Amino acid sequence: MSAATAVRPRDSSTRPLSVAIVGAGFGGIAAAIELKRHGISDIRILEQAPELGGTWYYNSYPGAACDVPSHLYSFSFAQRRDWSRLCSTQAEIDSYLNEVARTHDVERHIECNRKVTSCAWDEHDARWRIEFADGDRCEADAIVLATGQLNQPAYPPIEGIDAFAGHGFHSARWDHDYSLAGKRVGVVGTGASAVQFVPEVATQAARLTVFQRSGNWFMPRKNRRYPPLVRAAIERVPGVQEFRRRFMFQYCEAITAAIRHPRTIGRIAGLRSAAFMRWQLKDPDVRRKVWPDYTFGCKRVLFSSRYLPALQRRNVDVVVDPIARVVAEGIVTADGTLHELDCIIWGTGFRTTDFMFGMQIVGSQAADLRDAWADGAHAHLGMTVPNFPNMFVMYGPNTNTSGGSIIVYLEAQAAYLRQALAQLRARGARSVEVRAEVERASDRALQARFAGTAWTRCDSWYRDERGRIVANWPGYMREYLEQTRTLDPSEYRFAAPQTAAAPAQLADAPTS
Ligand code: NAP
């Protein structure tokens, strides 16, 4: 057991709250900063990687960049005026997050190379008991699961995937020591990641074969470095930075409007996308192959002016025949063709619907989160789950955004969970837990909001295997902000402190 938790006063309702945050990406850092600002400083941020950064640590593939403008894809309280371009590169974002962690004094709370394997609620002590892969343990009054939706690389269940004799790696675990120069490279997958690295790989590889299962809708984005004048204006002219952030917020809301209204706004946006794609796709064969066959906005709309031209290079082939199997020499497609390869790059995304199932989470009455979510993940406002007291999920079920910035959501979540812990302490309670009927009702209302939207019109990583959309928030950023701004204590049950005379009891909070 760690020394930090070895000595523990008995009265848990008066001693300082301890919080364990799993994950040192944007979510975990946001939560830690918010808690520290509000006087909770017994915080440990447990990170399995050797460095902080989360998705921005792992996704270091060539061309990796944000596809949301940086003035919005950054904390409201840590705005930078010197971003080099509209959508920053991975290196720039990673260094931003490191700087934020340092300047807000949360860096020293981060424990790297600490892989959490389980978190179990101890009813008697009202504590979470946390276990690590190396057998170490620690405890905390509350846990924040900030592991996100995009942290477990997915390899498709293709026959013979292990039979390949060449080199292979996933885009989220890029092998920077392997040179692609002069190689025959295969890329499987054409999502947001592949669209960023394919133009880079195309300039290095002797031959690049892109295996596509679905086409995408594209919008233009050159994402060149800002010209010095623009950069100077952002840096020096008062109000320019703030205006850009507000403008981008509204722009992102407009993308969500297009997804929410596929017959009207979505149709107009789809026409804009189609015009751009037609203009870029001079090669009729490539155009036919990559044209999407689903409603605009159902999958993530991709912003790139470089990907479609890259597919039309002489050294690049697009293969749309389904992959039949992988063999030692390469990939065999359904038409029987063997595509001989030296290297396969899996741009096949993440096990998004597994959420934090890399860990075992056991709540009160031995409730296992895996069982609680057996019919699809759900949580009140994506954060709180009945039977899991003092547990908060960041970037949890139904909080992904197709149009907005996840940072906006994460900041809202950090403030919300901080309010829950403040309420817990103000009431002298030992635990806080969302009421089951509240969570059920909010989940029903949330799922109903998908009706008629583009998200329902194709299969995507937003759905689980039953087809339920478990990843995305169905509305606008502003709606999420409104719904999470003030925690309503009547939606929660607070357990009174346990005494020898009276064991802990859950009490409905009086309406605020
Ligand atoms: P993804 O969007 O899930 O794309 C995975 C790709 O692999 C898809 O093209 C998918 O085809 C294909 N695929 C999966 N299984 C396959 C199989 N068995 N055979 C052939 N193809 C298969 O993953 P991603 O590109 O890594 O992006 C995931 C998410 O990360 C994005 O949606 C976005 O939210 C985020 N992201 C963000 C940025 C950013 O700049 N902010 C950058 C990269 C990623 P189907 O479409 O047919 O399923």
Draw up the topology in text.
Layout: E1 18-22, H1 26-37, E2 42-46, H2 55-58, H3 90-103, E3 110-111, E4 116-122, E5 127-132, E6 137-140, E7 142-145, E8 167-170, E9 184-188, H4 192-204, E10 207-211, E11 218-219, H5 228-236, H6 240-260, H7 265-280, H8 284-290, E12 302-303, H9 307-311, E13 316-319, E14 323-327, E15 330-333, E16 338-340, E17 343-346, E18 360-362, H10 369-372, E19 391-393, H11 406-426, E20 431-434, H12 436-448, H13 477-484, E21 492-495, E22 506-508
Parallel strand pairs: 1-2, 1-7, 2-3, 4-18, 7-19, 8-17, 9-10, 9-17, 10-13, 11-12
Antiparallel strand pairs: 4-5, 5-6, 14-15, 15-16, 20-21, 21-22
What would the CATH topology of the largest domain be?
FAD/NAD(P)-binding domain
Q: Count of helical segments?
A: 13
Question: Which band does the percent of strand residues land in?
Answer: 15-25%
Helix amount: 25-40%
What is the global morphology? globular
Question: How many domains, in number, for the residues?
Answer: 2
Q: Which sequence of strands runs across the widest sheet?
A: 3-2-1-7-19
Averaged pLDDT: 94
Radius of gyration, CA atoms, in whole angstroms? 24 Å
Distinct small-molecule ligands in the complex: NADP nicotinamide-adenine-dinucleotide phosphate
Give the class from helix and strand content and strand pairing. alpha/beta
For the biggest sheet, the summary is: 5 strands, parallel
The count of strands amounts to 22
Are there runs of 5+ residues with pLDDT below 50, and where?
1-11, 502-512
Fourth-level CATH superfamily of the largest domain? FAD/NAD(P)-binding domain
